[in-house]
Design a protein that fits this description.
Mean pLDDT is 96; it is low at 422-427. By secondary structure, the chain is of the alpha+beta class. It folds into three domains: 3-73, Uridine Diphospho-n-acetylenolpyruvylglucosamine Reductase, domain 2; 80-189, Uridine Diphospho-n-acetylenolpyruvylglucosamine Reductase, domain 3; 192-387, Vanillyl-alcohol Oxidase, Chain A, domain 3, CATH 3.40.462.20. Helix content is 27%, strand content 23%. The longest helix has 14 residues, at 34-47. It is globular and about 60 Å long. It is built from twelve helices and 16 strands. Helix 7 crosses helix 9 and helix 9 (303-315) packs antiparallel against helix 10 (358-368). The strands form three sheets. A seven-stranded antiparallel β-sheet has the order 13-10-12-11-15-16-14. It has a five-stranded antiparallel β-sheet with strand order 5-6-9-7-8. The structure holds flavin-adenine dinucleotide (FAD). Flavin-adenine dinucleotide is lined by residues 18-19, 52-60, 63-64, 74, 92, 113-115, 118-119, 121-123, 125-130, 174-175, 179-180, 324, 377, 414-415.
């Protein structure tokens, strides 16, 4: 029987909130099977009101809870299963940190993001810019098939040969077309990697960023590099650089140039199981990390981008800028192959602020003007124009046609709804 949790139930307090927001839903539906997901969806549609789909509860725009509505919480669909040598089946409610830990003894790994607390469902339906991305592509590039429940309650298996248009849409815009109940990924045989953590104190932020960008682009594909830049009177940066192999000599050669960038203040490098790379806390959700973000993708960290980022960091409303490498194997995939279409950019750039102020928006704008696309998983803003940045015209037009067929009533309208000309606030 479908488990329904309401405010008076003992489990409610641990389920009402997500990472970035507090919530007070009227009902939290906790399916254990795909059939119960269909049942939960039918119940939610019959009840009416606001609907939220939740896998790991780590969505940046915090739309996986609500006030007074229904939440379908997929946390119990958290299986991690090996199907053959390299193919694994993951439930949407599994967390990437647990996936990495389970896959390690099998000699396998899947590139996901830097947080092990992120759910398979949210990241696996939008992209997955990870710390082995330049070596192995986006997380969705390793997806071989999925099962999803569409708005009519029907369960579909989708792959390159089964309902290929739904399979295409799942890989970048999954939240628009259904609820994914399981994913089959082709994992990589890279269970062990070299990981460097490097701190920099910066005299010339723009100059550093330009050098950083050039170095990342010139690095071998085994290198993926995330840079976290703190704002304030003494600019600093911390980097996580991963070499996706256990070849210590090759890793040393590829990582050393990162320690030679100006301002290097400290570093540590070690060969580790990939499972040690995503930071995994398993902390309960209490809305503890409300963050406001703007994000974009850019081809190169050239002088213009670097200067504007330096200005953004100095301006005062931005707390942090995160720069994640894309490129490499991510850009081997043709733009039209998946609903995530951005296959020429080398970096994802995200600005984070503690308040969603007009000042933050204005400070972001000059950087935004140089961006050539957007990865929707890092955007907390609700500007309708952002849908066009996430999905270029040809992609958007295909997505709208698929949505018209499979979600004609707009049940899945919470997450960058491709049919909207204006993206209204979720609540
Ligand atoms: C600390 C932190 C670090 C991050 N680092 C990275 C990173 O390095 N790389 C990266 O690519 N991303 C990163 N992200 C972004 C992350 O990938 C997205 O926020 C993702 O949506 C979170 O997934 P979730 O399942 O935890 O989210 P949830 O909050 O559970 O879901 C978010 C939304 O996704 C949709 N969704 C969720 N599950 C399903 C499903 N099964 N079927 C259909 N739609 C679904 C729904 O619209 C839902 O409201 C990070 C996020 C955080 C908070």
């Amino acid at each position: 029987m479908l488990d329904i949790v309401r405010a008076a139930d003992p489990d409610y307090a641990s389920l009402q909130h997500v990472y970035g927001a507090t919530g007070a839903p009227a009902a939290i539906l906790r399916p254990r099977t795909a059939e119960e997901v269909a049942e939960a969806l039918a119940l939610a549609r019959e009840t009416g009101g606001e609907l939220a789909i939740r896998s790991g509860g780590h969505g940046i725009s915090s739309i996986s809870t609500n006030v007074g509505g229904t939440v379908i919480d997929l946390g119990r669909l958290n299986g991690i299963e090996r199907l053959d040598d390299t193919v694994v089946r993951l439930g949407p409610g599994a967390h990437w940190g647990h996936v990495a830990a389970e896959l390690y003894p099998w000699g396998l790994a899947i590139s996901s993001g830097d947080s092990g607390d992120v759910g398979v469902g949210g990241l696996g339906t939008t992209g997955g810019i990870g710390l082995m991305g330049r070596a192995h592509g986006l997380t969705i590039d390793r997806l071989r098939s999925a099962e999803l429940v569409t708005a009519d309650g029907v369960l579909h298996r989708v792959s390159a040969s089964e309902e290929p248009e739904l399979f295409w849409a799942v890989r970048g815009a999954g939240a628009n077309i259904g609820i994914v109940t399981s994913f089959e990924f082709e994992a990589a045989a890279t269970p062990v990697v070299a990981q460097a953590t490097i701190a920099y104190q910066l005299n010339d932020v723009a100059g550093f960023l330009e050098s950083w960008g050039e170095l990342v682009e010139q690095s071998p594909r085994e290198i993926s590099a995330f840079l976290y830049m703190g704002a304030g009177s003494v600019p600093f940066a911390q980097a996580t650089v991963v070499f996706a192999s256990d070849d210590a000599d090759a890793a040393l050669a590829a990582l050393t140039p990162f320690t030679e960038l100006p301002g290097m203040a400290g570093q540590r490098a070690q060969i580790v199981p990939y499972a040690a790379v995503p930071l995994t806390t398993d902390a309960p959700h209490s809305g503890q990390q409300r963050a406001f973000t703007h994000t974009g993708l850019v081809d190169h960290l050239d002088r213009a981008v670097a200067r504007r980022l330096a200005t953004l960091l100095a301006e005062g409303s931005t707390q942090m800028v995160q720069i994640r490498s894309a490129g490499g194997a991510i850009n081997d995939v043709p733009s039209e192959a998946t609903a995530y279409a951005h296959r020429h950019q080398n970096f994802s750039v995200t600005a984070i602020a503690g308040a969603d102020s007009p000042r933050f928006a204005a400070a972001w704008e000059p950087v935004h003007a140089l961006m050539t696309g957007m990865y929707l998983s890092f955007e907390s803003g609700r500007d309708p124009g952002r849908i066009m940045e996430a999905f270029p015209p040809a992609t958007l037009s295909s997505l709208r046609a698929i949505k018209a067929e499979w979600d004609p009533d707009g049940v899945f309208n919470q997450n960058f709804d491709v049919t909207r000309s204006r993206l209204e606030p979720a609540r």
